[in-house]
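pinned: reference chain
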Amino acid sequence: MQQKKEINIQMGSRIRKARLQAGLTQEAFAELLNLGPKHISAIERGIVGLSMETLQNICQVLHVSADTLLFGDIEKSPADALCQRLGRLSPEEFAQMEEIVNKILEIFAKKINVLGGTHGISNQ
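pinned: its structure tokens
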């Protein structure tokens, strides 16, 4: 029997949690990844590690970042939380919000130019 590595155990647990949150059985998850259910079980129990390709496929299927699977629930910055909220908008709502944010950034850029300095705001 292979010796379990701590990182494999942690990642396996996080993958299992994300799979359950997605409402997938091991069998359905395995099918989406073109892997066997026994392999999924071994991954989730930390018995085997992941290739980069498998990690990428898992992230795509479960809609989670590799950071989440590698490091767990990391504290998110206010910008991360805002991005997550923006990601839930419809395309039309997102376009409207993007227009609003661009106008605000233009105002900030003009204000900074008047004051004669830069403050980390770029006009893209």
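why pinned: The chain has seven helices and no strands. The mean pLDDT is 87.
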